[in-house]
Amino acid sequence: MAAIHSISTVEAARRKLHEFLGERVSIAQSVREHHSHGEDTHPPALPDLVCFPHSTEEVSRIARVSAEHGLPIVPFGAGTSLEGHVQALRGGISIDMREMNRVLRISADDMDATVEAGVTRKQLQKALENTGLTFFIDPGADATLGGMAATRASGTTAVKYGTMRENVLGLTVVLADGRAIQTGTRARKSSAGYDLTRLFVGSEGTLGIITEVTLRLHAQPEAVTAAICAFESIEDAVKTVIEAIQLGVSVARIEFMDEHQVDAVNRYSHTGLKVKPTLLFEFHGVSQRAVEEAATMAQELAAEHGGLGFEWRTTLAEREELWKARHDVYYATRALRPGSRVLTTDVCVPISRLAECIVETRVELDQASFPAVMVGHVGDGNFHVQCLLDESQLGEAAEFSERLVERAQAMGGTCSGEHGIGLGKKKYLEHEHGAGVDVMRAIKRTLDPENRMNPGKVLDI
Amino acid sequence: MAAIHSISTVEAARRKLHEFLGERVSIAQSVREHHSHGEDTHPPALPDLVCFPHSTEEVSRIARVSAEHGLPIVPFGAGTSLEGHVQALRGGISIDMREMNRVLRISADDMDATVEAGVTRKQLQKALENTGLTFFIDPGADATLGGMAATRASGTTAVKYGTMRENVLGLTVVLADGRAIQTGTRARKSSAGYDLTRLFVGSEGTLGIITEVTLRLHAQPEAVTAAICAFESIEDAVKTVIEAIQLGVSVARIEFMDEHQVDAVNRYSHTGLKVKPTLLFEFHGVSQRAVEEAATMAQELAAEHGGLGFEWRTTLAEREELWKARHDVYYATRALRPGSRVLTTDVCVPISRLAECIVETRVELDQASFPAVMVGHVGDGNFHVQCLLDESQLGEAAEFSERLVERAQAMGGTCSGEHGIGLGKKKYLEHEHGAGVDVMRAIKRTLDPENRMNPGKVLDI
Asked: Residue A186's domain is classified under what CATH number?
């Protein structure tokens, strides 16, 4: 991509940044390239500079340098975006948050924690060892908590524990002009003023840079059990899910894999599962009796829908094997066709339309020239398609993806359940929110009048 | 309050409104007086006109008349605000939403419903009869769903089911210029764009007028049980709560009443309860066994903290009696001193500080010249104080209330857990959110540049 900012502008900014960051500002080509893309199929776009701040104060100072020199800012976490969030479309400064990686506070009594934005999910889990507490949101990748907040991430446990929307209590955010604000309090609920926390959660770095996140934690469940069940058809599997949700069966996870996904998992993780549409369940409760009761209810529902044997996974080792296999689907899928480009989509529909949406999508995929698998957090109505492509198939896959979004939106759903809009789904936002996008745009212009904060993402102003 | 708008302006607006509302626009003194206050202690402030729209389109047209004539708009629901939300501080148009009271759609499959903003909680409950579904949020009053969304209301069941923040899936909102927008989708989760739903939930009519609300519903629990337990001290009661929450005991309600509140309830509802700090519990589950297990765990915790007999309330009749008594605390308290003014406060703190906060507050109340009772949704860290006052005690109570807010904020809590800011708590917002209030103000100015939307509430611009 051609340089947008002159060498002298970039050099002047670099000198200013060097004053307080020292060697933690880089213009090295390899560093810029590393910060030019996520795990998506969009073309890379290099920043002019990459900074590695250690504090909110340093982020504020970087924002002031950005303002002074008219350079955009693109926050960068673990680089696992699937929608082109971190491409520096207009150059400028990539702020790599991974050195802001301190767990600042864990309160066992209040079951909350405050972390710097660069702390990753696994790092937080490690810090929570021996506290009896856990943080359940797991988007698959070992993403940073700041990135997860910025994209309103979720994952397999959202059906019970919610998404980042429900699990962020407060934020520290640096605004375009360098001011830092705190949103929220440590109270579990509040009616005090506009909900700025929820405004910044999911704003993808376009309204401000999240530097600290206060998270709600959950008690480690006293008892856990899991199960897996194959079905003859996608409809049977999804109908089991719908009934379980409607009956209030307390599932902590309820995940779907189509037969192609199961096949990929078998090859990669040597799991020997039936190559059929399959549901994976997990149940959390205060006692073994409670989780067995919930699992038994799910078992009965599965049986009513022709489930091909409901296999309990009661030991920790069995459960870990099951969820490791589920967790690795992304890699399992890639291994089906090594070296291919992977387009990963993400829609979410009202649960009453889920079976229809998944079946129609599978029918279409069966006619595509590329292999594709489906996997979903079906308790939420959310599912993904991974398409394995060579360069010549990118266009066909893009058209498929567009039809999938249109199908989901026509069913009252959303163009993104958890991956975000980024660069890839801007065109769908208008259709989904209509005049609401004008309101989003007005807010963007107010908080970032110079359009320096991750410009070109979520919406164009 | 002196007229702010000239007679000719008001008359010109009235004629315009009459064109499409007919007799559903009123300038009658009695109607204006009815719309000049809620259930708070703030001075009434009369609107110039009161409108009773029947559709979002009519609300849009009212907003355009407001814009044309420079008249403020104050949305009015059931008139049960406790913080001066509905006072027409600068005159203008009170929009009474109660004739927009259609339940537009109930989806049993998706467990959601869309209602017009004037539908009340009880009306929705009635519409849900025989669906197997329910809506749990109950702020005590039979408020409108629009009003509950606007104040981010909650109530006794928030500890399990969340507040309006978690239970509103989407809104129809009329903006200051008359444009109507839809926020959210019917998908359970979404990462598509800024979270406008959460921005309008809790904005108290200052950013737009909520005309329709899409709500998340819950399955009626298969099994329910309840219990009541008195304690020798406030600390013992609150510590039981804290441990229950920390252990993940699945409570649907966990309510605290201090001994003065219990005494008021006994007199009003003839309940014969021990006049001691008391907890009320409710447990929801998929089976009798599940709820009994949770209740037994709570019973054991209560016993460890010296609970004075944990009385199960297993039959529907027993439970209804219990919760009716809890529900009527506001009236029970008023009856302690008939004719008095009632100041009701509302703070929320991290649960680790709850015992300390309640005890310090009780100590202070014991020295006050007015009677006061305490009641709380303690599982959330949220509690209320009701002060029974004569006119001469309003100042003393205001000072008490100020110290209570300062105490809660110093503990990392919030100046309002569920009643909102309105007119009464504006001064605390700055202290709680600091520079965040500048961001709120910027958003307010962007969406309502003429400050016509419920002016003088939440924040001054």
From this structure: 3.30.465.10
Confirm whether A356 is domain-assigned. yes
Residue that the structure tokens 């579904």 belong to: B133
Interchain CB distance below 8 Å, A289 and B293? yes
Closest-CA residue to B227 (of B136, B295, B289, B287): B295
Residues of chain A found within 8 Å of residue B210, distances taken between Cβ atoms: none
Closest partner residue to B433 (CB to CB) among A193, A421, A437 is A193
Residue A2 lies in a domain: no
User: Could you tell me how many CB contacts below 8 A there are between chain A and chain B?
Assistant: 298
For residue A166, which of A152, A146, A178, A176 has the smallest C-alpha distance? A152
ipTM above 0.90, yes or no: yes
Q: Which domain holds residue A448?
A: 425-461
Cβ pair B298, B378 in contact under 8 A: no
- Find out whether B440 and A193 touch, Cβ atoms under 8 Å: yes
Give the pLDDT confidence of B41-51 residue by residue, as tens digits: 899 999 999 99
Whether residue A434 and residue B218 make contact (CB cut-off 8 A), yes or no, is no
Cβ–Cβ gap B179/A435 under 8 Å: yes
Handedness of CA A434, A440, A445, A446 (dihedral sign): positive
Does one domain contain both A211 and A290? no
Residue-wise pLDDT for B312-343, tens only, equals: 999 999 999 999 999 889 899 999 999 999 99
CB spacing of B112 vs A350 below 8 angstroms: yes
Q: How many CB atoms lie within 10 A of CB A84?
A: 24
Whether residue A279 is contained in a domain is answered as yes
Would you call A192 and B433 a contact, using CB atoms and an 8 Å cutoff? yes
Q: How far is B286 from chain A (nearest CA, A)?
A: 7
Q: Which residue of A has its CA nearest to B166?
A: A166
Write down which residue in A98, A120, A155 finishes a domain.
A98
